[in-house]
User: What shape does this take?
Amino acid sequence: MTRALTLIRRRLVGSVFVLLIVIIGSFLLLEAAPGDAVDAYIVSTGGDAGMIELLRHRWGLDQSELTRLANYLWALLHLDLGQSITFSRPIREIILERLPTTLILMGSATALSFGLGSALGIYAGAKPGSFRDRVLSIGSLALYAVPGFWLGLVLIVVFAVDLRWLPIGGIETIASGKTGLARAADIATHLVLPVAALGFIYLALYLRMMRAGMAEAWRQDFVLAARARGLTRRRIVLAHVARNALLPLVTMLGLQSAQMLGGSVVIESVFAVPGLGRLAQEAVAGRDTPLLLGIILASAFLVIVINLLVDLAYAFLDPRVGASEANA
Amino acid sequence: MSRLHRFFRTPEAIAGALILALLVAMALAAPLLFPGDPQAIAGPALLPPFQDWSLPLGTDRLGRDVLAELFHGARTSLAVGLAAAAAALLIGAAVGTLAGFASGLLDEVLMRVTDAFQTVPSFLLALAFVSIVGPSLGVVVAAIALSAWTGPARVARAEVLSIRERDYVAGARIIGMHPLEIAFREVLPNALPPVLALSSVIVAAAILTEAALSFLGLGDPNRVTWGGMIAEGRTVLRTAPFLSIVPGVALVLTVLGVYLAGEGVVESTAVRRSLS
Assistant: This one.
C-alpha cells in the first residue's frame, strides 16, 4: 500500500508542474487569438462601447499581462473556464455535458483495440517468422496507415448506406421516446461504427507491440527452462512468453489515451457523436477560442488522471515498481 | 553487399520504395501533366470515373478533375509531411541534446515542457494552433511539428546521456571547447542515428495529421489536399462514394509506402550492425 502512495505522491508533484505549463501555454494562445472575453460576452448579450470599457475594467482585462495570467490561474483554481462564445454558456457546463459520451467512446475503443490487438499479437508472436505472423504484421501495418476519419467514412458507406445495418451517425434515435434498456441498446447500435473506426486504428499498435515483445521473450532463458520442464507449448506461449510481453502494453494504454482523445475529434465529427471531440470541431468552426482551450485543458487533465490510474495498475501488476522508493 | 543492395532485399522494402517513387513522380509531374489551376472547373459535375477518357477519374461536385486534384494533392501531402517531420526532428534533437547535456535545472524544465506537450492530445494542439493563427501551408507545417517533436526529443536526450560520458567528450572539454559547441558539434551528430530512425513514423504521422486537419477544413484553402478532397466527397457520400474513397486510398498507400521503406532502412542498418 505504501508503494502505491509513494507512487501517487511523486506523480502528483510532477503533474502539477506539467498542468501549470499547459495552462501557461493555453493562456499564451488565448492572448494570441483575436478578441477577448468581453468581445465574446458582448457578442452574446449586446452592449455599447461604454459597457465594453466597464466590463474590461471589471474583469481586469485592462491590466498587465502578468496580472491577467494570475487572474486566469485564480479562475481555473475555482474550475472556472470562462464563457463560451458560440454557446453563450459557461464552458465548464458544456464540457461536463459532453464528457461522458467521449469517455464511453474512448473506453469501448480502447477495450476493442487492446483486447483484439493483444490477442492477435499473441497469435502472431506464438510463432515469430511464420506465415501467419508475416500476414498479420503486414496487415497491421496497412491498418496503421489508414486515416481514422476515412475508415469511418468507408464503414458508413458499407454498413449504413449499402447494407443499412447500422445508423449513419448521432448518439441515439432522435425523439424515439426510448427509456431504460431499449435506450441503452439504441445508443450501443449508434456507437458500433465510431468505436470500430477509432479502435481499429490503434489495434495495430497493440498487435505489433505484443508481437515484438513476444519475439524478444522467446529468446530468454526462462522459456528454455519452461521447455526443459516439459510444459505444453500452449502453456509456454500464454503463461510465460505472452505474460512477460504484456506489461509494456499496459504502459502504452496510458500513453495512447492522449492520442485517442485527439483521434476522437475527427471520429466524432464524422459520425456526429456529440462528445468532447465534436465540441472541439464546433469550437473551431465557431472561432470560439476560449472553448477550444477549455477543451485542451480538460483533455490534459483527463490524460494525467488516466496515466495515474495506469501507473497504479502497473504497480499492482509488477511488484518491482516503486518497491525501492517505498523502503527508502 | 552495398547498403542499397541490402535495402532492396525484402519484398516489403521494394514495395515501399516503389510506392514512394510513384508518389514523388506524381508530385513532380503534377504541374506538367495538369498545368493550370487544379481547382478550376473541367467538365460536368459528378461525372463517374472511367466514362470520359479526358477525365479518367471523373469530376467532383463542382466539376473539378479528380485525377488532376489527386496529382496536386500528392504535392501538398509530400511537402507538408517532409517539412513538418524535418522541423519536428530538428526541434526534438536540439531540445533533447540541450536537456541531456546540460542536466540539472535546465534538463528538468525542458523535460517538464516535453511532458506538457505529450499530455495535451497532439491533434488538439495542432487544431488549436491552426485555428488561432490561421490556415496556411507554413502554419500547418508548424502546427504538426509542434505536436510531433517530443518523441525525437526523448530519444535524443537518452542517447546524449550515454554519449556525454565518453572519452572524446572529456577530451573536448579539456581542450576548452565551449559546452554548447561540444553539445552540438561533438555529441549531437553521434546521437542522431536513433533519432533519425524515428523519421518514417514521424513523416507518416505528419501526413495523416495534415489530412485530418484539411478534412476538418483547416488546410490551406489555396491548395488541393487529399483530406480536403475526402471532406468534399463526404457531402455526396451516398450518391458518389468514390469521391471520398479514391483520395483515401492514395493516403493509405502513401503512408504504407513510408512505413515499409522505413522498415527496410532500419532492417538494412540493423544487419550491418549485427555483422560488425
Remarks:
- Residues 202 and 259 of chain A are 9 Å apart (CA to CA).
- Chain A has a mean pLDDT of 84.
- Chain A touches chain B through 50 residues (CB under 8 Å).
- The first helix of chain A runs from residue 2 to 32.
